[in-house]
Amino acid sequence: MTTVRDVDARGGQHCETTTLGVLLRHQGLDLSEPMLFGLGSGLSFVYWDARNMGFPFLGGRVRPFELTRNLAARLGLDLVVRETTSPRRAWENVAAPIDAGRPVGLQLDSHHLAYFTSKAHFGGHVVAMYGYDEHDARLVDTEQQGGAVTTSLTSLARARAARGPMTARHRSFTLTVPPDAPAPRDRIVPAVTACADAFLDPPIANLGHRGVEKAGRLVRTWLQRAEDPARDLPGAARLMERAGTGGALFRNLYRDFLAECAHLLDDRHLRAGHRRYAEAATGWTEVATLITRAGETGDADYLERAGAVLTDLARLEREAMRTLRRLGE
Predict the structure, then answer these.
(1) Which range marks the domain in which residue 287 is found?
(2) Phi, psi of 149 (to 5 degrees)
(3) What is the DSSP letter of 207?
(4) Of 50, 73, 281, 283, which one has the fewest beta carbons inside 10 Å?
């Protein structure tokens, strides 16, 4: 077994921040998972429904790997990304840094991983790899998926080669912290204001606060939209609460990021934004509960209530982001 030494194989709540934590701790930079999420300007919202989809999807973060690119740019990290269509070259891109004593991040389709508890396809899943032998790979995934886990090299190859929504071409990456990297504390303001700008000024109505408002209108129709309401509605709610979001569609993570920042920076806008996101996190969990009850009972009143809460959340998050956009004034 070839294994990178001194890897802290802690599983977090979210796959991409879990992986970033593994890679950066190995470089001597230990940041909390909420801080990684916030410095990467990870919070967002999308209401996604297409003709080829069985049911609408509510997303609460930026696109896969955008968080990693944001974090690397903001902290001055050396991010080296490898992509290829060749399975042989893809393996070399992973084995070389591990042989040299460095863990590697991988983007893949979680459906093919032997240990994964959900067999739905998700091509934006990210894991850290830190060892291998002739049969298996050693990975770090979220706490929910087991933290330090193993999967066969065959299943790993299938996961990396998968094609479909959000997949990448055998993407692997490493991170290096340079000696002159800025202190994370000094990058809080640009991280928060960039996230607020994107949320407040989305290019289409499905994104940001406009997307939340749209969800408030359309969620009321979900009993008619669903092929199997008893399956589809609770399934959508589970994705909001338990599919690597940290709960409340990533709002718990962002709330905790703002709380941590408030201990580092004395800013009234930051404290006000934290209070509003603490309220928003509670609201998102309430929405998930109402959607679940609608699916279990077939009672449309639960969806009317969920729509009303979402309408309030669109206003609340808009106010929170307007306040946070003024951070540092």
Answers:
(1) 184-324
(2) -135, 170
(3) B
(4) 50
Rounded Cα distance between 178 and 8, Å, is 20
Secondary element (H or E) of residue 223:
helix 222-225
User: Does residue 258 sit within a domain?
Assistant: yes
Domain count for the chain? 2
Kindly report, residue by residue over 11-46, the tens digit of the pLDDT.
Answer: 999 999 999 999 999 999 999 999 999 999 999 999
User: What pLDDT is attached to residue 329?
Assistant: 74
Predicted pLDDT at 166: 85
Query: Around Cβ 325, how many Cβ atoms within 10 Å?
Result: 20
Question: Nearest CA to 85 among 174, 167, 16?
Answer: 167
* Same domain flag for 7 and 139: yes
The candidate with the shortest Cα–Cα distance to 193, out of 43, 48, 60, 19, is 43
**257 and 149 part of one domain:** no
Give the model confidence (pLDDT) of 76-127 as tens digits: 999 999 999 999 999 999 999 999 999 999 999 999 999 988 778 889 999 9
Name the token pair of 232.
Answer: 């589809």
pLDDT, tens digit, 9 for 90 and up, residues 233-265: 999 999 999 888 999 999 999 999 999 999 999
Whether 210 and 164 share a structural domain = no
- Residues 207, 141, single domain; the answer is no
The arithmetic mean of pLDDT across residues 288-306, rounded, is 97
| CATH code, domain with 256 | 1.20.120
Given CA atoms 160, 163, 164, 168 in this order, what sign does their dihedral have? positive
Whether the CB-CB separation of 142 and 11 falls below 8 Å is answered with: yes
Phi and psi at residue 136, to the nearest 5°: -130, 160
State the CATH number of the domain containing residue 85.
3.90.70
Q: Is residue 63 part of a domain?
A: no
Residues 233 and 315 in one domain: yes
CA distance 250 to 254: 6
329 within domain boundaries? no
- CA distance from start to end of the chain: 54
Q: Does some domain include residue 41?
A: no
